[in-house]
Amino acid sequence: MYTGIKHLHVLLAVLSVVFLITRAIWLLRGSDLLQRKWVKIVPHVIDTLLLIAAITMVSMVPWLGQPWLWEKLVMVVLYIGFGFYIFKFAQSAATRVAGLVGAVGCIALIAHLALSKVPFVLS
């Protein structure tokens, strides 16, 4: 069961990142696609399912003694913050691109932590 939830979690994470990057590109290009109802709803559904899968997996393992999970959680919060910044606060293309670079950087660190299970700070 754990393996199935993990695979679902990875799929949802990939979809979340692809959707963030796609929407950021649409924002930078001034696309009307951002105004479609499904574009506003689907990312929230994906991210909610992603969170549910993560909580389910964490409930199956003793996570308090896993420093890499704590660091991954911090990176997830930063990823969400960068996404919020890109779509709500950034005023210019340069600041939106900077926010996107920060979000992608967080994703790279999350992926590294998930694969290696070796924390950067709490080791």
TrEMBL record:
<dbReference type="Pfam" id="PF04247">
    <property type="entry name" value="SirB"/>
</dbReference>
<keyword id="KW-0812">Transmembrane</keyword>
<keyword id="KW-0472">Membrane</keyword>
<feature type="transmembrane region" description="Helical">
    <location>
        <begin position="73"/>
        <end position="90"/>
    </location>
</feature>
<feature type="transmembrane region" description="Helical">
    <location>
        <begin position="38"/>
        <end position="61"/>
    </location>
</feature>
<protein>
    <recommendedName>
        <fullName>Membrane protein SirB2</fullName>
    </recommendedName>
</protein>
<keyword id="KW-1133">Transmembrane helix</keyword>
<dbReference type="GO" id="GO:0005886">
    <property type="term" value="C:plasma membrane"/>
</dbReference>
<feature type="transmembrane region" description="Helical">
    <location>
        <begin position="97"/>
        <end position="115"/>
    </location>
</feature>
<dbReference type="InterPro" id="IPR007360">
    <property type="entry name" value="SirB"/>
</dbReference>
<feature type="transmembrane region" description="Helical">
    <location>
        <begin position="6"/>
        <end position="26"/>
    </location>
</feature>
